[in-house]
Specification:
0% of the residues lie in helices and 43% in strands. The chain has 230 residues and is an all-beta fold. The strands form 6 sheets. The protein has a 5-stranded parallel β-sheet with strand order 1-5-9-13-17, with no helix packed on it. A 4-stranded parallel β-sheet has the order 2-6-10-14, with no helix packed on it. Strands 3-7-11-15 form a 4-stranded parallel β-sheet, with no helix packed on it.
Length: 230
């Protein structure tokens, strides 16, 4: 399969919901699409064995393969080679599912080989969407004039790579926990940015002049939209 292209998903193969496709002893070269430069899997089962996927491109995720969350369980790759593929995230493979037990995705690829794949943002070979938020546990400041706390955070995918792509509908919610003596304040929805910073613009915190305080911060990531870059 050579020089095949699709605008949205699956440059050569698109497995839709409920579908089943088995691929063996095949070669895909120079294919392209938005999601899954070669294969877009949204079906029940998509096993691949002894297959070469090379020199293909996704403008979004998964230069070789994009695996949607529903099709993760039925995906099995054995003896598959990924050579010279490229995407924004997941140069070879992108898994939409990220909230999984350790070892789940590694087991999906047996005797796979990765060579010279590239990702413009993160996940040279394999990547997922955000799996966890890492943020400062406390913010320190001195009492006096009201301040608007600012929080820094990072999003990590299943493989602990820092997620830098923006996603439609994504948001990080950070909540402030106030110690005794500070003015009451509530958390505010913070839009996900590549810089990973947000300010509680409507949450002025005050305390006794000259006293030092530490405000506890907890953040969580939520997905509200499609698994596409925005």
């Amino acid at each position: 399969f050579e020089l095949e292209h699709a605008v949205d998903a699956g440059g050569s193969v698109a497995v839709e919901q409920g579908g089943r496709v088995s691929i063996s002893r095949s070669r895909f070269w120079n294919c392209s699409s938005g999601l899954g430069g070669i294969i877009f899997s949204n079906g029940n089962q998509t096993p691949l064995t002894s297959t070469l996927l090379e020199e293909s491109r996704a403008t979004g995720f998964g230069g070789g393969i994009f695996v949607s969350e529903p099709s993760t369980a039925g995906t099995r790759l054995v003896g598959v080679r990924f050579v010279g593929n490229r995407a924004s995230a997941g140069g070879a493979i992108y898994f939409a599912a990220s909230q999984l037990a350790p070892g789940t995705l590694e087991a999906k690829c047996s005797d796979c080989q990765f060579d010279s794949n590239r990702a413009d943002s993160y996940g040279t070979d394999m990547a997922t969407g955000p799996a966890q938020v890492v943020s400062a546990s406390s913010l320190e400041f001195r009492g006096g004039n009201p301040v608007n706390p600012e929080v820094s955070f990072s999003l990590l995918d299943y493989f602990s790579s820092v997620v830098t792509d923006r996603y439609n509908g994504d948001a990080v919610t950070c909540t402030l926990g106030l110690p005794y003596g500070l003015g009451l304040v509530s958390g505010e929805m913070l839009a996900l940015t590549k810089q990973g910073r947000g300010k509680f613009d409507q949450a002025a915190v005050t305390g006794v002049i000259g006293n030092d305080y530490a405000v506890n911060v907890t953040c969580r990531w939520e997905r509200c939209g499609l698994d596409r870059p925005g």
